[in-house]
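User: structure tokens for this one?
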Amino acid sequence: MKKLLIVSFDLEVGGVERSLISLLNELKDAPYEIDLFLYRHTGEFMEFIPKHVNLLPEAQEYATFRKSIKEIFLERNFKFGQVRLAAKWNASMQKIYLSLNEPGYRQMQEMWLKSMRYLPDIQGDYDLAVSYLWPHYTVLNKVKAHKKAAWIHTDFSTVEVNLKRDKEMWQKFNSIVAVSESCKEAFVNVHPALKEKIIVIENMASPHSIELEAGKEISNEMDKGKFKIITVARLSYAKGIDLAVEAAGILKSKGRDDFTWYIVGYGGELDKLKKLVKDNDLEDHIIFLGKKINPYPFLKQAHLYVQPSRYEGKAVTVTEAQIMKLPVLITNYATAASQVHHGINGFITELSPKGIAKGIMLLKDNETLRTQLIKGCAEYDFSSAKHLDRFHSLVRGQI
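Assistant:
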């Protein structure tokens, strides 16, 4: 029996975390012993870890990566506190001198590299060790395994890291796994020398489970009198919720204000986004629903799903909306073509507030097109069988 280790951060509500739970569920009958190591045992999805998975104990040193700097110092964990402060300062300087949009990637890179000497090894000897979230230094340096694989969940051409250090990390893995073909292509454009290492295994989802969850009742009904738009996303720069707010403003300015846009999710930009909504007098049109373990009943009530992202690997939430046969509008981010078949099971629009507004007006006005997209979703095979087969091939060393 093969012995597997999967390493990730935590199980807070998010697309990557949901895809991890789906993967673990799909491996229920596989001939593997599966250990799961999470840096911190937090998050609403903790209760969904399948019984066939062995959750390893939390290690205090790794848990610091999911705590604030203030928490770390209050716990008198000075080594890691100093590392975090140094990484944050270095990243803030690099943001200024390198004109970075998201210095958080540099900060994480610095933090992990400087922390390695303080971290304990993860005990065990594995056939395959999977690092499910970047950066992948833990599996690389602290795990003993015959084969190691690292996952990519985003469009890597947009990730602002120290490329030399990044390449040094990736090249030591046996396999690099991208969640879509476009995601793979973007990575190869950044690291062409690693082309032979990279394979594609898409995120897994269970249509049956999603349909069951969608049937559950919710206490707060969505506005029945208006056209209902929904977005499920982390409130961050990458997800482009600010672009959605601007698009809503354009719709209102054109007198097309018979809509309500529901945003499901949480993140660091919530206050900024609420202010943007208020400043544009859109409080009757944009509703922040917050974090939802089960977003599917809300998706079920909507007329249109919109993903206004600046970049993605392959958005789990878009696939889930398609599984629920909901018309989907996404922006033309670099990997969009691997997310939907334009005009068949989704619609791709220009990546701008104007483009988003234009796409919404088109789909709102054209019920025939919406019906066509629903039909395309209904006819598409969203099952995980072929992706699961590729995962098994990875374990067996065949890819």
